[in-house]
Amino acid sequence: MSGVSRRSLLGYSGSAAAGAVLASAGAAHADDAAATDATAVDAKTAESATAAVEFAPGTEFSGRAQHSTGYAEVSVTFSIKHEETPAQHVITPTEVAEALNDLAVKRGWPRITFYGTPPKAPLN
After folding, report:
1. Helix H or strand E encompassing 30
2. In this structure, what is the dihedral angle of CA atoms 46, 6, 76, 112, given to the nearest 10 degrees?
3. Closest Cα to residue 54, out of 92, 85, 99?
4. β-bridge partners, 79
5. C-alpha radius of gyration, the chain, whole number
6. pLDDT tens digits along 24-57
7. Cis omega (within 30 of 0) on the bond before 118?
8. 61 DSSP assignment
9. Which pTM does this prediction carry?
10. Measuring CA to CA, which residue among 79, 81, 60, 76 is closest to residue 113?
11. pLDDT digit string (tens) for 56-67?
């Protein structure tokens, strides 16, 4: 995994994805197997924590991705707030994040992890 630092990987892809990439990058040794198990547990814990986070209406979500060339970067920010909206018309932040990721991937960008502020927690 040359040319990509752990810090830059964590900066735009989220710790669970970065941990999975970092765990799969090295040779398979006994120590690496233990580290991989710990990473898998951390990823599951992060996913559980993400599912438990509730974002207030109007929460601002932002994320960024770096292009595989390493030179280009895209940042996306959005928020959603409904007022007296029937349930069938509600647009969730997760739906918007997925739609934006579909567009990003079609244009050659990696998937973007969006974080809500506050709390600073991953949405997707």
Report:
1. helix 30-52
2. -60
3. 92
4. 60
5. 17
6. 444 444 444 444 444 444 544 444 444 567 888 8
7. yes
8. E
9. 0.56
10. 76
11. 889 999 999 999
